[in-house]
Amino acid sequence: MSNNYGPSIVTSGLVWCIDAGNTKSYLGSGTTVYDLVNKQPSVAMTSGPTYTSGSPSYWTFDGVDDYIGGSSLTTSLSGGTAEIWTYINAINRQQGFLALNTGGGSYINFWMPATNTMRWEVIGVTSSAYSTINATTVSTTGVWYHFLGTFDGSTTKIYVNGNLETSQSMTNQPSGAYTAPIQVGRYDASYPASARISSAKFYNRALSASEVVQNFNASRGRFGL
């Protein structure tokens, strides 16, 4: 492999990364999950998500109380990117997949309503006007998806399997020094995901369209895409 994260992915601006298929991130047993960027324990498996080794390797979340989390990420934001590979086990429900939320006013997350279209939420201050965007793909069960969202201070975008699906002007976004807890497999306790998740990443800048395609192509083979 060309680096700790996998062959040919974009590393510029990468501030946090976990990968079920990389033994430097998860050893295959226990509850500790390591951040590949900082090479240290980052988050913990909570309430019993299960691990499956293979091609791909992944964690399974039961849609009740499973999640991976417990630590905070501190980064300086002028823009950002979040990325996950996920396989949805249940639809027609409200569920979160990856979140970096202060819990008091700022939110960066992937969240899916009962319409089954992934929502990319980037909210700087909830007390001010804000907007979120949804992908156009209606997600189904039994399929692996690559979801990636970006924001750059003026525009927010969501990509599915390397393709730009929705973009719009932003009304506000997190900025400056940003510290928030990481949660994988839920938005908060009220919105757990019923899904498999294989990897998750955060960048402190918006990836370009060509970089989004680069990341998708770097990993798509292990997901049969």
Care to describe what's here?
Helices cover 5% and strands 47% of the residues. The protein has 1 helix and 16 strands. The strands form 2 sheets. Strands 1, 4, 5, 7, 12, 13, 14 and 16 form an 8-stranded antiparallel β-sheet that branches. Strand 8 and strand 9 (107-112) form a beta hairpin.
Please specify the SSE layout and strand pairing:
Blueprint: E1 14-19, E2 32-35, E3 40-46, E4 50-52, E5 58-62, E6 67-77, E7 80-88, E8 95-101, E9 107-112, E10 119-123, E11 133-134, E12 144-151, E13 155-160, E14 163-169, E15 176-184, E16 194-203, H1 209-219
Antiparallel strand pairs: 1-16, 2-3, 3-6, 4-5, 5-16, 6-15, 7-12, 7-16, 8-9, 8-15, 9-10, 10-11, 12-13, 13-14
Features:
225 residues, mainly beta, Jelly Rolls, eight-stranded antiparallel sheet, 5% helix
